[in-house]
Request: fold
Amino acid sequence: MLTKDIIMAELSDLEQEYRSFMVEHFADWRLWAEASQRMSDGEQVQEAEIPPALVTEYRFMEVVLEMEAAGTFDWANPKLRAVFAEVAQSSFYKTWGELIARISLRLARIAGVQTLIEIGAGRGNLTGIMLDQRGDTSGQPNLIITDANPVVLENMQKLTETYSQVSLETFLWDIRNMPSQELRALVHQPCLLYERASIVYATIPAIENLARVADLVVFGDYFNNTGRLYAYDEIAKRIGVQPLFYDDIRPVLEQHFKDHFLFDIRAQKEIDLPNTTLLIAWK
Ligand SMILES: C[S@@+](CC[C@H](N)C(=O)[O-])C[C@H]1O[C@@H](n2cnc3c(N)ncnc32)[C@H](O)[C@@H]1O
Reply:
């Protein structure tokens, strides 16, 4: 039976590595919070003022404010897409993705997991990292990659061409809905579900649907653990990205899982970052 002590004994080196990275990388996050307020107030803010770790956030906000001023928000705007592509290549995103994959694989091993599910896989950045980390697939749990958007099917096709040895199944799943019988038929228990930055779009009620198939979850997502919001959060809200408060998530997890914890709580508290980025729950 899993406990937090057993899990942390398995993951303590990863926690220490990630904590050091986060504390150094996001040390100056408040400079960005203040700058985003000034941008929101209509002031000109130069990119040089922004801590390097948060420059892509600045570019994102710049494009969103520009579109707002023009009167239309468009997810397909080429400048916005370029910023998203940049985010996906950032050192934080790479470190975060590797952490999610490494934790998932280690937990899968100690829990005897038979199926891994990724949700919200989108362009396959996290899937690619998982495939790199996973290596030789013989004797490994089966891997099911899902997203609400059918483009995931094409993206996974491209990925499997790159990783010729890979075996994975692809499935459409809007996690605001219960998993279909068809999907459930592919899942062998115990099942570990992992993700990055998709619950923030699907929002908290989706967690109940995830718990219907998963015995363990690794959520790489932004959960606000201080209750404080900043100008950049308010701008994100205006384009439909709602902040998710850990205080609202906790009761849902308590209802559906035996236990859970915020893996990066020490880093979050050390620099008073508003968001945590990794949560583990199990039944
Ligand atoms: C920011 S992208 C993250 C992509 C990928 N997880 C990664 O880290 O590279 C968000 C993804 O969440 C997916 N998503 C948003 N709402 C969803 C929902 N209700 N059900 C399933 N996926 C969803 C989007 O289609 C998109 O692919």
About this structure: The mean pLDDT is 94. The longest strand covers residues 142-147. Residues 119-122, 125-126, 147-149, 174-176, 195-198, 201-202 surround S-adenosylmethionine (CB under 6 Å).
